[in-house]
UniProtKB/TrEMBL annotation, chains A, B:
The keyword Ligase applies. The keyword Ribonucleoprotein does not apply. Coiled coil: none annotated. GO terms for molecular function: ATP binding; proline-tRNA ligase activity. PANTHER family: MITOCHONDRIAL RIBOSOME PROTEIN L39/PROLYL-TRNA LIGASE FAMILY MEMBER, PROLINE--TRNA LIGASE. One of its GO terms (biological process) is prolyl-tRNA aminoacylation. This is Proline--tRNA ligase. Belongs to the class-II aminoacyl-tRNA synthetase family. ProS type 2 subfamily. It comes from Hoeflea olei. The gene is proS. Residues 55-346 form the Aminoacyl-transfer RNA synthetases class-II family profile domain.
Length: 447, 447
């Protein structure tokens, strides 16, 4: 992509209302634009990262056996009256009347609708286990939207819903999602720690939040140092092996871990923390990036979602739900990976793989070198953002650092005259001068 | 994908309210489920096709130089008051009050919001041309939603918006979208014919609808037989060559073409039709799949979207907008390509490439043959839906024909005992018995 033909509106100033670094950097890097309080447009650079995050989420959901669907944003109030949640949700629910004066709402979550889909089609235990997910815009009318896309009103959510015959099977479904979340966040460049959590308006008895450690995190968290050494399961994990999956969950839930919310409310948590040796304690800032719930028959009973079991009897299905906010996750990645100059994207979610900077567009040798590098890298399957604009060098460097592409290639007239370019690694700042051929090979390998 | 682990709820009966064949087939093939009037969930098979259609739309938008963004669904009424359209839109606009009692709405289209994005960042003619598009859910509160996803209330739309310094440049932008639409529909297996159209609530002076011919189409259309021989431009068309692109538009807009709406309203259209030789006349049923508009400064003037020109003066930008409904397009594909037994997907949008039917699951030889074929085809990059269920053969054949995968492989115990399977081409019904190896090779080539 040529920057001269792209739409990358870099801001020099921080937005006044941007309280946290990810919000500031996303606005300055031309990734998002606020349209109303808590409602954002995703500009081209932001959209590219959002797509990459969603692709990782989707791949890991599919790997764990979840099946993708797509439910609408606007829901009928009837379903929520049926489940008994219509009044519980309070002012956060965006209620709508359509032209026929029917009560509708902009979905804040989809337990009711997916249960309706399930009961419409599934009649037998033979069709279980079933886990349906979608990635769709949600709306929660927060009293005080803030932190950019981290706590917006309209936000993207991946929500999965599992249906099983009994508690044991639904616990296995919960475990599969638990493990897929560990993998999802690691692939986004994040180390996540699962922590027991409150269930809030979703309900149920068992719930974990996945917390990413970041100095600028929104809340204080407390955990055992053992987590630092834990390895995330590999891609070829057999998700059909319930015992193996349960073993991973066991391992990741054994050491102490709790949010400040739990520490305040639960005496056991405070006692467990106090019981830890000083050197085992990690107290840090964290950001919630995922939340999973097991709630059994909370929705299936009032909504009459049952299957015929092997015993010939009707059983209300046991359910769980599993949420990741890709827009929020993207913010968390920036909170965890940035410096004074801007964003430092992990390779897996970078909007482009390489930033190619032509220091003197119009100079025949520089143009030829850049075009050669651009073509060779794109041929090798890399996405290149080629800065062919007339900006001065300082501004180009600042933009490249701000938008945080993992690798930069700098083609200046002096180096190019000697057949060379410079490669810069964004994360470390390391620079190296290489021949054009060697630079192409190095970058193609880095893919 | 194993059908035993998939979610493909086939219906035996047509939904009562399904008036048209695409609606009936999508419901019966387990692609969609109605949630409220004109509001649908996309089930796994439907979601896969929708994604394929969106990918084609996206690729052709990018090829023509449009840049993808993503605007939110909920908009502030303020922007629409600014443009003067807030009252024009009438009851079709879904109006919403948020918890602060602010007037919001679920976007039916995005001219206002994208103009707001433009004016926030772009100041100079040097940043033009610019064309921003997104693929996002829209809501139009139709008085009488019907025809399944063809005329839903919540529907997916790809809408692109071009910004140029003057009329001539914006006409070139219009032409690029015109040509990209021809390519988009052809890649979806459809022949589209551009017809002059009314501009309706979008406004402006120049507009074309793209109509696909299908016996079950919603409206009568009239055109010259010349269109039958027109070839769609190739993928390597140079979209930067304004003259070449204009030449293609000229060619495709010269022969007579009009919808019944235009024929009724415009005397010139009736006269032109009457003037055609009998053998040149094609009168057929058609479906609108795209609509493009040039409206100049209709939004840029009231909303103060201008750039500094080369003359140093301020110029309101000249704009156009360009819409394709992927959900509607999907319905049109089915209208144009089905038979008594079900859907016949064009290869480019098929949810899976191959349906693999095991006639006797549990039979060691059949299972081994199917697993070998499944692995080999997936290795070759094909998406396989493997029917490993216990259904009886007749039901499996009916399902395979209903969901319309282009190619079927049938593995029955007698053929497999001789090392053979049968291949069936869905579109023609042709069947051929081949050795397992030969079948794998044939299918891998068909990719």
């Amino acid at each position: 992509m040529r920057l001269s033909k792209y739409f990358l509106p870099i801001l020099k100033e921080n937005p006044k209302d941007a309280e946290i670094v990810s919000h500031r950097l996303m606005a300055r890097a031309g990734m998002i634009k606020q349209q109303s309080a808590g409602i954002y447009s995703w500009l081209p650079l932001g959209k590219r990262v959002l797509d990459k995050v969603c692709d990782i989420v989707r791949e890991e959901q599919n790997r764990a056996g979840a099946i993708e669907i797509l439910m609408p944003t606007v829901q009928s109030a009837d379903l929520w009256i049926e489940s008994g949640r219509y009044n519980d949700y309070g002012d956060e629910m965006l209620r709508i009347k359509d032209r026929q004066d029917r009560a509708m709402l902009f979905g804040p979550t989809n337990e009711e609708m997916v249960t309706d889909i399930f009961r419409s089609y599934v009649k037998s235990y033979k069709d279980l286990p079933l886990n349906l997910y979608h990635i769709q815009w949600k709306f929660r009318d927060e009293r005080r939207p803030r932190f950019g896309v981290m706590r917006g009103r309209e936000f993207l959510m991946k929500d999965a819903y599992s249906f099983d015959l009994d508690y044991e099977a639904s616990k296995a479904a919960y475990n599969r999602m638990f493990v897929s979340y560990l993998r999802t966040f690691e692939r986004c460049g994040l180390k996540s720690i699962p922590m027991r959590a409150d269930t809030g308006p979703i309900g149920g008895s068992l719930s974990h939040e996945f917390i990413v450690l970041a100095e600028t995190g929104e809340s204080q968290v407390f955990c055992h140092r053992d987590f630092e050494g834990f390895a995330v399961p590999p891609a070829d994990l057999n998700y059909d092996d319930d015992a193996a999956v349960a073993g991973i969950v066991e391992k990741w839930t054994t050491p102490f871990a709790a949010t400040d919310e739990i520490m305040e409310k639960e005496d056991w948590a405070r006692a467990a923390w106090d019981g830890l040796a000083e050197e085992a304690r990690v107290s840090a800032r964290g950001i919630e990036v995922g939340h999973i719930f097991h709630f059994g028959t909370k929705y299936s009973e009032p909504m009459n979602a049952y299957v015929q079991g092997p015993d010939g009897k009707q059983h209300f299905v046991s359910m769980g739900s599993y949420g990741i906010g890709p827009s929020r996750l993207l913010g968390a990645i920036i909170e965890a990976s940035h410096d004074e100059a801007g964003i430092i994207w992990p390779k897996s979610v970078a909007p482009f793989d390489v930033g190619l900077i032509n220091m003197k567009p119009g100079d025949t040798a520089c143009d030829a070198a850049c075009e050669k590098i651009e073509a060779a890298l794109e041929n090798a399957g890399l996405d290149v953002l080629y800065d062919d604009t007339d900006e001065r060098a300082g501004a180009k460097f600042a933009t490249a650092d701000l938008i945080g592409l993992p690798l930069q290639v700098i083609a200046g007239p002096r180096a190019v005259a000697e057949g060379n370019v410079e490669i810069k690694v964004r994360a470390t700042g390391e620079r190296e001068t290489l021949s054009i051929e060697a630079a192409i090979n190095r970058l193609a390998e880095a893919r």
